[in-house]
Design a protein that fits this description.
The protein is α+β, with helices and mostly antiparallel strands. The protein is about 40% helix and about 20% strand. It folds into 3 domains: about 70 residues, Winged helix-like DNA-binding domain superfamily/Winged helix DNA-binding domain (Arc Repressor Mutant, subunit A, Orthogonal Bundle); about 100 residues, Periplasmic binding protein-like II (D-Maltodextrin-Binding Protein, domain 2, 3-Layer(aba) Sandwich); about 100 residues, Periplasmic binding protein-like II (D-Maltodextrin-Binding Protein, domain 2, 3-Layer(aba) Sandwich), CATH 3.40.190. Strands 4-3-5-10-6 form a 5-stranded mixed β-sheet, with helices on both faces. Strands 8-7-9 form a 3-stranded antiparallel β-sheet. The termini are far apart.
């Protein structure tokens, strides 16, 4: 029986992830016919059916799911071999697949890119924006190398390095009573429902839990998919929202007819990098984190930053 190639296994994993030949082919950067031929060759070589195909859907067979799960581990191990070689060639070289949540990526990464390009010209950074759960799943599956997320969040066995704290401001219409104050507190928001992102965005949970002693509530009549939509609602006089300082200092409110009021006493979210503890590129991730946390990139460097938190049984990592 012929041994499957990594290419064939990559096709199978992509199909198991996307359940669609077109999207799986796009993820593998091949044509749909190439992916389909590769999978048929894999099935013929193994002597089993890996997928059930109809005109409208693709279902992975039980044996296909089992083989896909083992294929993920093999592909991750193969990538680790490449990463070991890359690390020996020098810091932050070659391809790096970075995932970021939408409330961090657009505001932090563009500000850090000039320094990354100047300091690490041989780095090729590929960015994916997804929600936190999808990023964590992608990291564990080997689809991503390192992710930018906001804590608190359950990261399980992942290695985590804290970068900086990100506080909040209150965005209100210009005719709102809070528009005339120097700063707002949790008490000012206690009886006012907030316009927030839809469920699945960790910022929704973080905003509602911003105060330990004040229970904030969301406006159940509306949920946004982006911060720009929230701001459009605020500018239209339909309510108020909490914004991360990172987004405000990056200029998300510029040119809008709203007022951003500093919020005091709120528990900030913590911006962090996370990666698989088995990855050989730990030093690269630490160097990347140092750039993201540097003045000019981050909104507010975290003083006394915590060292990366290793999972049980893994040696402590060098702090950023």
């Amino acid at each position: 029986m012929p041994v499957p190639t990594l290419r064939q296994l990559r096709f199978l994993v992509a199909l198991a992830d996307h359940r669609h030949f077109g999207r799986a082919a796009e993820a593998c950067h091949v044509t749909q016919s190439t992916l389909s031929t590769g999978l048929k060759e894999l099935e013929a070589g193994l002597g089993v059916a890996l997928a059930e195909r109809t005109k409208r859907s693709v279902t992975i067979t039980p044996v296909g799911r089992e083989i896909a799960a083992r294929a993920r581990a093999l592909l991750t191990g193969a990538q680790d071999i490449v990463d070991i070689a890359v690390c020996h060639a020098g810091p932050l070289r070659g391809d790096l697949r970075l995932g970021a949540i939408p409330t961090i990526g657009p505001f932090l990464i563009p500000r850090a890119m000039p320094r990354l390009r100047d300091t690490y010209p041989d780095l090729r950074l590929y960015l994916r924006e997804e929600l936190t759960e999808s990023l964590v799943d992608g990291l564990r599956a080997g689809r991503l190398d390192v992710i930018l997320i906001a804590l608190p969040h359950d990261t399980g066995e992942l290695a985590v390095a804290s970068l900086f704290d990100d506080g909040y401001v209150v965005a209100v219409p210009r005719d709102d009573p809070l528009a005339g104050v120097d700063q707002a507190t949790g008490a000012d928001l206690a009886d006012r429902p907030l316009l927030l992102l839809e469920q699945g965005h960790c910022l929704q949970r973080h905003a509602l839990e911003a105060f330990a002693t004040v229970r904030l509530r969301k406006d159940d009549s509306f949920a946004a998919t982006s911060l720009t939509t929230l701001l459009a609602m605020v500018e239209g006089g339909l309510g108020l929202t909490l914004l991360p300082e990172l987004a405000v200092t990056a200029g998300i409110c510029d040119g809008l007819d709203i007022v951003a009021v500093p919020l005091v006493g709120a528990l900030p979210r913590r911006i962090a990098l996370a990666w698989r503890p088995s990855s050989p590129r730990v030093r690269d991730y630490q160097a990347l984190g140092a750039v993201f946390a540097a003045p000019g990139s981050a909104c507010r460097p975290l003083r006394g930053a915590l060292p990366p938190r290793p999972p049980q049984g893994v040696a402590p990592l060098t702090p950023l």
